Amino acid sequence: EVEYVKQEAKVVYLLECLNKTSPPVLVFASKKSDVDDIHEYLLLKGVEAVAIHGDKDQEERERSVSAFREGRKDVLVATDIASKGLDFPNIVHVINYDMPEDIENYVHRIGRTGRSGKTGTATTFINKSCDESVLLDLKHLLAEAKQKIPSFLAALEPENEELLNVGDERGCAYCGGLGHRITDCPKLEAKQIKETGNIGRKDYLAPGAADW
């Protein structure tokens, strides 16, 4: 689901979204300050939540990840550090508090739910503060996946639409190559396979995670 949510209403609407499904739920936010604000708000509302980002020391992050993985906490709020090597096989719901700056991170985020043949839900908040080029990529991704495109996304058209098309083909939003779309991009697929293969060799945090 892609929802248009005003900036000032996002944290309240987030709580409503958490009630849509049972835990465990992953909440992604791009800014560390947003992660902290969301975490504090959820705790005030009685939600069993933990948070991780690059400014927290490794011991605290490992403790939070363990509590979430073991089911002692229902919600993990994280920057994209959590999509760069942490594996949670039973995620029921992924909530994107914001739209990431590139479509690749979006694909990584929503790929955390519905694994191993299980059903999962992904909810993404967007508003006028989002970069239009990323929203166009999102629109194309939804179209390729044959998912419903919200009216506010359907209305978006790139100024250089004619430059993106060659005959009946449109370039891939990830690598720019012709003849395929982002959902079939071999470069993106290879990158995802490589990262997934590395999960078993990683501890709780990906190399360089503290830089996020």
TrEMBL record:
<dbReference type="GO" id="GO:0003676">
    <property type="term" value="F:nucleic acid binding"/>
</dbReference>
<keyword id="KW-0067">ATP-binding</keyword>
<dbReference type="Pfam" id="PF00098">
    <property type="entry name" value="zf-CCHC"/>
</dbReference>
<keyword id="KW-0347">Helicase</keyword>
<dbReference type="GO" id="GO:0004386">
    <property type="term" value="F:helicase activity"/>
</dbReference>
<keyword id="KW-0547">Nucleotide-binding</keyword>
<dbReference type="Pfam" id="PF00271">
    <property type="entry name" value="Helicase_C"/>
</dbReference>
<dbReference type="InterPro" id="IPR001878">
    <property type="entry name" value="Znf_CCHC"/>
</dbReference>
<dbReference type="GO" id="GO:0008270">
    <property type="term" value="F:zinc ion binding"/>
</dbReference>
<keyword id="KW-0378">Hydrolase</keyword>
<protein>
    <submittedName>
        <fullName>ATP-dependent RNA helicase abstrakt</fullName>
    </submittedName>
</protein>
<dbReference type="InterPro" id="IPR027417">
    <property type="entry name" value="P-loop_NTPase"/>
</dbReference>
<dbReference type="InterPro" id="IPR001650">
    <property type="entry name" value="Helicase_C-like"/>
</dbReference>
